[in-house]
Amino acid sequence: MKPISKIAAGVQASTTLAIDSLFKAMKAEGKDVVGFGAGEPDFPTPEHIKQAGIEAIETNLTRYTPAAGLMDLRRAACHRLEQDFDLHYEPQQIVVASGAKHSVFIALQTLCDPGNEVVIAAPYWVSYSEMVQQAGAVPVIVSAGEEQDFKITAAQLDAAVTDKTKVFMLNSPCNPTGMVYTRDELQAIAEVCTRRNLYVIADEIYCNLVYDHIEFTSFASLGEDIRERTILVNGVSKSYAMTGWRIGYTASNRYLAKVMANYLSHSTSAPSTISQHAAIVALAGPQEDIYAMRRAFEQRRDHLVERMNKIGGVSCLKPQGAFYVMMNMKSFLGKTMYGQKIESAEDFAHLFLEKGLVATVPCTAFAAPGFIRWSYATSMQEIDKGLDRLEQFIKNA
Ligand code: PMP
Ligand code: GLU
Known about the structure:
binds 4'-deoxy-4'-aminopyridoxal-5'-phosphate, seven-stranded mixed sheet, 14 helices, Aspartate Aminotransferase, domain 2, 397 residues
């Protein structure tokens, strides 16, 4: 047989989804495993949003919609961007896709030709580098360590740009670090993007999950030029506890929106009509549920960070947003635990799952070796259970 596509053959399975499947399978087998793997809110979708989905089914709103999504949903997205960030977009500039993941995917497909370079600020969400390669482009990783709060500088971005660079991938609040770029930091990055003529994909899916009264700045709000070259990505998954409904969207200039809609019209078409009706209510309806969930996440973060930093051998920075903590486990590298030499964060995470019955995500695939990601989108009780187990796991090793 002839070889399959080189691009497809090179795609790695998503670490986050693989760990989530393993965790769910272990649970189904009756194992008492605690999960801090996939980043998905543990809250149910708010009642009024669920009702909108049910009503859509009952009133037969179950047919195809335009590829770029229902006009009412695109209007609702505009309303949110206006209310939350003072950003004015027309509905024609909004393209709805099957989750923010697919929004990033079509943005990259739209912007990249084979051989183009895409600069990714690391640590980064595992899917970015894969999606860049799926577009035939080359990921160029610019890393920011713990000592710079996991945030890259404008100078680092500038130094990584070549004549092949097409796009800069920005994610604030960031998965996996939870860090939030300040307005000044973003302004400096925007200056580089303009001067070096780059497109920007600004993934702002965690925009509502920012703590300590820190101000969130939407990248597109930094000026007319930057807005023209930015594809803003957002969605309902994280803000409204709607991960399974699969609704994301982009806001961009009209030309890019048109091209992305064309692309969708030959691939997925629009996402489920039922989900789109629920998402209208999420975006245009009352926002109180977001505030309640944010408060709960903030309390969990405080508790997790405080306890983790008291455990010998591990440490973490206090993230400002999203629902992830990066646990530094470098002190265990080269040591032997349970008869096994720990060579990487993977070794630690696998052993912690096997012996400690706790699922976490090693950050090697996020370009952050030596770190393990804990998602605290789970109850306080589970957080305590996980940390108790971490203490025991280290003590008994
Ligand atoms: N961007 C980031 C940074 C994420 O962490 C996720 C999590 N899945 C997504 C995009 C995709 O979200 P969705 O579930 O809407 O596809
Ligand atoms: N984005 C979440 C995470 O990083 C969900 C899983 C995924 O889509 O990768 O865990």
